[in-house]
Amino acid sequence: MRIDLIKTSQGKPYERVSDYYAGKSVFVTGGTGFLGKVLIERLLYNCTDIESIYVLIRGKKGFKSENRLQQMLDVPVFDKLKALKPNALKKIILIEGDITKPDLDIKSSDEQKLIDNVSVVFHSAATVRFVESFENIMKVNFEGTRHVMDLSKKIKNLETFLYLSTCFSNANKLVIDETIYPKPKTIDEVYSFIDNYGDNSEATENFINGYPNTYTLSKALCENYVDENRGTMKTIIVRPSIVTPVLKEPLPGWQDSWVAATATFSDIARGLTKVIYGDPNVVCDMIPVDYVCNFIIVAAARGNPSDDIIVYNSCSSSSNPITWKRGADLYLGESLRHGKYDLKPRPVEVSMSQLKVNLLTFILQTTPSFLADLWLRLKGESPKYLKMQKRPVLLRDILKYFSSTSYHIKSENSQKLIETLDKRDRAMFPCDPRTIAWQTYMPLFCRGIQKYLLKPKQ
Ligand SMILES: NC(=O)c1ccc[n+]([C@@H]2O[C@H](COP(=O)([O-])OP(=O)(O)OC[C@H]3O[C@@H](n4cnc5c(N)ncnc54)[C@H](OP(=O)(O)O)[C@@H]3O)[C@@H](O)[C@H]2O)c1
């Protein structure tokens, strides 16, 4: 693929990525999420002449959307922006709405603002839970995408519609190229399955046929829907792999959600997981959240000058791979330096033999937990360690598919786009996975989890 840079109205390519955003407004869904917060912060921090960022937020758990916007800005990832560029925050414009509702359930005056002003839509909102009812996953991910696209099509001067998918939207394949694959199921088949079987786990496993879960399948369905229904919208799909804490800016180590690798590494370092099902040589495809968000900003600015759809895999495995085992060992090494663990941790055992995994789980996890509980009982305290084992074992089993499958995730399109960045833009929007030094990143990852996710509980 050739990357031709998007041109200004005078026909010249934008010199800098941030120039593209000058005087433009963007619409972000999923702004309160892990990626969304970093995306908004990076846009405001680096694209200083951006006009406005419209952020879709729903009311939730008794909190109104205005309060939720404030809660979002109270997160430490915005501290640097607040300290150095406080006025930038005024560019955030709240749009109250819910992607599961037709027209996003937004006020007609808000809809008009979007229609009149927005140049780029970043659709990031989704449910990323692997254990969730199939019906709800379809409601949020599929119907949500349909509704966001319906609205985007009404926007007068839309330049790009960017959809956040996942590298694992085709997790039933071993080679994952930057292309849209044929849809795994029709929407009618999916809804008829849900009507007939609900969340029957055995039937679901048969139905999803090689996919690890309904989340990844839903993302494949969304990609196909986006492709088939984009009309004349210039469309980009960015597929991150496993998104991990901030590497560089704005706050190294920052992370705010327990997902896949984060929870697994943390469980290993806390002595809760000592054995996982997998192949020691299988690569864990991680990409820091700031790298993903910088890449998204670059992609929307210069990633699709044609009318065709373009797909970018934002990932590390093809250019700078690290195995699950090495990632876990580096993380554990840092954790041991700080001595923060519940049960004495040890380097994780990785095996493709289910029998060995079960046996080692009994010897290395269940037995010490039982003995630790016995000791607590003898002291007159309540037992807790066997109970603590349940979640890590469940998580390990949920991730089994990923820790045992050798994917070849291609990223030529992404690399080519990154190559178009000059030295200054590379420094401002670091996104080249080859620049991740795992030796120092994994200890940072560990310190970030201890500081931002585990700290409140200690
Ligand atoms: N995290 C990863 O490792 C990863 C990897 C690959 C791809 N991705 C993709 O990246 C995107 C962002 O993921 P993330 O990690 O940032 O997820 P996240 O932290 O769970 O955030 C999800 C966002 O979606 C919003 N949302 C959910 N349902 C909504 C609804 N009905 N109406 C409006 N907003 C709604 C949430 O808003 P509330 O705050 O209101 O719930 C939140 O802002 C997703 O599309 C995901 O598939 C993530």
From TrEMBL:
The keyword Ribonucleoprotein does not apply. Gene3D superfamilies: NAD(P)-binding Rossmann-like Domain. The keyword Oxidoreductase applies. It catalyses: a long-chain fatty acyl-CoA + 2 NADPH + 2 H(+) = a long-chain primary fatty alcohol + 2 NADP(+) + CoA. Keywords: Lipid biosynthesis, Lipid metabolism, NADP, Oxidoreductase. Residues 365-455 form the Fatty acyl-CoA reductase C-terminal domain. Its EC number is 1.2.1.84. Pfam families: NAD_binding_4, Sterile. It comes from the Eukaryota. Residues 28-296 form the Thioester reductase (TE) domain. Catalyzes the reduction of fatty acyl-CoA to fatty alcohols. Belongs to the fatty acyl-CoA reductase family. This is Fatty acyl-CoA reductase. The gene is LOC113391401.
